């Protein structure tokens, strides 16, 4: 009896559609037994493959704990996860979709602030006048903190974003943000601009595999069904 291959695919959004398209292009046709709302799917003619629709962030965690063998998610989410999780996962393929950058953005009216280094001066002014640190709203606390420290900025406080991060400065919940963007249009629409050296990381969709699973014969066979990008 063949072992079941558990594969995680994002449960919603453009990333889900693009990944399902990759399956279709490689003659791997997905079907669900309980309709569109079903969180599980299967691949026609491959009885040993089970698809599980999960949040893109959760796919990374499930690969690390071994409940998924293969997953499709964003490179940014993998790098945001803690080091112990990253050590348990291999990136097998990168795709030409899901392209975006994680960036540091500030209010457009801060005309004297052009680079990340300029933030340190703003941070000290806030500390002196309001006795508070510069607040950075983000869904990527690990990457943001690492990036700011690497640039010599230390006087900041991370504010974890639960929704539309771009709205945080306007609502007074933070001074600046770090967020994922593909065109920058949403940032500009909310009166924000990216710092000259404010790109934290470039991201794209990836096929990623749990290291525990990579040596299994049926896993290798499945990966070969996808052409290299």
From TrEMBL:
It comes from Pelagibacter ubique. GO terms for molecular function: glycosyltransferase activity. This is ATP phosphoribosyltransferase. Its EC number is 2.4.2.17. It catalyses: 1-(5-phospho-beta-D-ribosyl)-ATP + diphosphate = 5-phospho-alpha-D-ribose 1-diphosphate + ATP. InterPro entries: ATP_PRibTrfase_cat (IPR013820), ATP_PRibTrfase_CS (IPR018198), ATP_PRibTrfase_HisG (IPR001348). Catalyzes the condensation of ATP and 5-phosphoribose 1-diphosphate to form N'-(5'-phosphoribosyl)-ATP (PR-ATP). Has a crucial role in the pathway because the rate of histidine biosynthesis seems to be controlled primarily by regulation of HisG enzymatic activity. Residues 56-224 form the ATP phosphoribosyltransferase catalytic domain. Pathway: Amino-acid biosynthesis; L-histidine biosynthesis; L-histidine from 5-phospho-alpha-D-ribose 1-diphosphate: step 1/9. It holds the Pfam family HisG.
């Amino acid at each position: 009896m063949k072992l079941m291959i558990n594969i995680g695919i994002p449960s919603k959004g453009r990333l889900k559609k693009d990944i399902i398209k990759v399956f279709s292009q490689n003659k791997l046709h997905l079907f669900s037994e309980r309709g569109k709302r079903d969180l599980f799917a299967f691949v026609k003619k491959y009885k040993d493959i089970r698809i599980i629709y999960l949040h893109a962030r959760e796919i990374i965690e499930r690969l690390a704990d071994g409940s998924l063998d293969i997953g499709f998610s964003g490179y940014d989410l993998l790098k945001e996860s803690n080091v112990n999780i990253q050590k348990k996962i291999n990136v097998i393929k990168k795709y030409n979709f899901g392209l975006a950058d994680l960036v540091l953005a500030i209010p457009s009216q801060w005309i004297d602030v052009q680079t990340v280094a300029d933030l340190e001066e703003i941070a000290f002014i806030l500390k002196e006048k309001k006795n508070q640190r510069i607040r950075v709203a983000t869904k990527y606390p690990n990457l943001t903190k690492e990036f700011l420290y690497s640039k010599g900025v230390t006087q900041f406080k991370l504010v974890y974003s639960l929704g539309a991060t771009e709205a945080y400065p306007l609502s007074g919940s933070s001074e600046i943000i770090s967020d994922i963007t593909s065109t920058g249009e949403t940032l500009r629409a909310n009166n924000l601009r990216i710092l000259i050296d404010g790109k934290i990381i470039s991201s794209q969709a990836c096929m990623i595999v749990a290291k525990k699973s990579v040596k299994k014969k049926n896993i290798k066979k499945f990966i070969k069904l996808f052409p290299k990008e």
